[in-house]
Write a structure and sequence with these properties.
about 100 residues, mainly alpha, two-stranded antiparallel ribbon, 2 strands, globular
């Protein structure tokens, strides 16, 4: 099925997107490219307000302000997010 999505022959259903997000322990917005690793959501149109969030000129809702990550930290974060859930849990346990 995923091969058909990659070829553009069909699109995933909402249910499939939710199952994939659950499996990888990420948000559906992250899978759809609307959210980065830090919870910042990018919107394509419309106005968003509330919850103390602001929309900047690039249409990105900044969830929090943090210092930029180094290239090596970014690589580690991407590896963590793509790891199986059991490995992520082991890493979490090791770091707690």
């Amino acid at each position: 099925m995923i091969v058909r999505w990659e070829k553009g022959e069909c699109e995933p259903t909402a249910n499939a997107i939710i199952k994939i997000a659950t499996y990888f322990d990420v948000s559906t917005d992250y899978l759809l490219g609307r959210e980065d690793d830090f919870g910042n959501v990018t919107i394509s149109s419309g106005n968003v307000s509330g919850n103390g969030n602001t929309v900047n000129s690039h249409n990105t809702i900044n969830a929090r302000t943090i210092a930029p990550l180094s290239a090596s930290d970014t690589d580690l974060l991407r590896k963590y997010h793509s790891a199986p859930a059991e490995l992520r849990k082991a890493v979490d346990k090791l770091l707690s």
